[in-house]
Structures are given as structure tokens and as C-alpha cells.
Amino acid sequence: MVIDTLHFARSAQVMDGQLPAISCTRLCQDLPAVQPGVFEWRLAGRTDAERSDAARAWLDVQARGSVRVICQRCLAPFDLELCVDNTLALVDDTAQLEAMDALESEGHGPETEYLVADPRLDVQALIEDELILVLPYAPVHDVCPGAEAAQDLADTNRPSPFAALAQLRKR
Length: 171
Hints:
This protein is of the alpha+beta class. It has one domain. It has 6 helices and 7 strands. The longest helix has 12 residues, at 94-105.
């Protein structure tokens, strides 16, 4: 599915759909096994002023779904929820994009993400790009399964290395 980003934003169009994880080859290329999940997504265009010819155009991107990953702490697989809620400001060309990035890096511009307006933007690629950006480099469980039991076992089996120091302090 392809859109003209400026026309889409200026006419305040909205589209949504489902994207099978298996079709996100760049997102899933280093993930384990086949990814059976589906991402729900929504793309909305808007402008920030009454006059659409002089207004800044925006794309609001939302996506939600899960991917199967390997915990980098315990090496067990788990489903990781990915959630995108991002706003992209459209700029006319690469020079304008670089100028805005330079201002931002100097601390003079707003912290806004920019996208060069494209008359033929691939929506699926945009959604996949945004999902890739929220995928953690080293995913981990909030609490690894069996971590509490292993910690309890470790606590009961070995004395604290500081126990000897406590004895010296009492003398």
C-alpha cells in the first residue's frame, strides 16, 4: 500500500489494518523461529494550522503486537509486546531534514522526528521501520522464570563474603 504523504496529511486521512509479523522480514530476520503474531496499526495524517498550504504536515503512527524473542538474561523464549505511538513531521527534502537535525543536535530545535515527504511512501515499510525502532537490542523478561527460586537457593547455600568482615568489626 502506497500513499502520497503530503496529500494524506493535508486531507487528514486515516488508515488502519493488520500486518502479519511474518511479512515483516527486516523486523524478524534475527528473531527466533517463525513469528505467528499480527500487528494492529493505524496511520493518521494532520496539519497544525487552518491553512493547509502553509501548515506543517504530520503523520501519527501507531502499532501494537508481539514478537517471540529470546531473553538475554535466562535464554528462555518469551513474547515481547511492541507498542509504537509516534508522530513524524513531514519536511520537503533531505536538505531541510538535515537542517532540522542540525538545529536539534545543537539544542536549538524541538525534539521532533522528521520524515521527508514522499509521493510514494510504502506504508508497510513505515510501520515496520517504527516497530524496528522500538524493538530492544537485548530483550529480557521483567522477572525471569525461576529467578526467585534460584536466588533463594543461592542465598541458603553460601555464606555472605562479608560475614568475616562483620566478625572483625565486633572485636
